[in-house]
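Write out the 3D structure for:
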Amino acid sequence: MHVYETSLKSGITRTKEFERKKLATHCVNVGIKCGHGCLYCSSGALLRMHRSFMEAGVSPFDRGYAIVDPSTPERVAADARRMKKRRLIQLCTTTDAWSPEAREHNLGRRCLEAILSEPGWTVRILTKNAAVIHDYDLVEQHAERVLVGLSITGTPDKADILSIVEPNASPIQQRMAALWEAHTRGLRTYAMFCPLLPSIANSPEQIDGLVRLAVECGVEEIFAEPVNPRGPGLGLTQEALEAKGCRAEAAAVGRIRNTREWSHYVVSLIINIQQSARTHSDINKLRFLLYPSGLTPEDEARIMEDDAGVMWLGEG
């Protein structure tokens, strides 16, 4: 992993998109390219025009590198003091404050300290790295002001496959254990099942396993999302699975590169997670994040017949 350093301009910023998702009103990001290297990640497509890629001489869609800003906590501290309207900050939205390159600079803990040292702010942690457990002592000191979330993208029976598409993230069992530990230590938790890839995490049995985990960990909310088809992520995921001999999973990912098939996959995913939430949890806790622009009219109408737990996003 080659790590480039950059200097960002922002510390704490408003995020209207994540406010619509009811995730946060503000966000902090510690870099531009996350070292977890998840093949399906759509952040490259979202940030592809950022100057940091040109300065490093790399493509936003290349693999094997990260771009981080070690000075982020200083700007976060200044913004936390300066800003008067203090609400909910997500750490992070497009990168990960506990990814390997971020941990080299202890960015997750330093950003948390900077935010929590000022009254009025609350924080939603989202990470794919179980190393966050080393900062639970800090979270415990501000337990009512922090929500802990681990991005859980499948069940342990698919751990080997997930390690192919999320090569530098913590193994799925460790992420589950980190969420469970947060609960046992009395911390506030929420579930983030995103993305739920076809043939990897979308069957009724797999979703039941995830929802039961959420219930056992005392989560306040259950967020879920289909994979974002934007950018080359699905193609990279399919190629990597094929190269490792995971032909069934590769074929399933390949199918949803077709717009109509992606739409059908979303409908099935919603039905499965609604059923599981109703059976094992509380449908009122479900937050299924959905941009309908890729849906066929027929599938959109079908979802609208029962859209319990669905958060419709995007224009209109």
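The chain has a mean pLDDT of 96.
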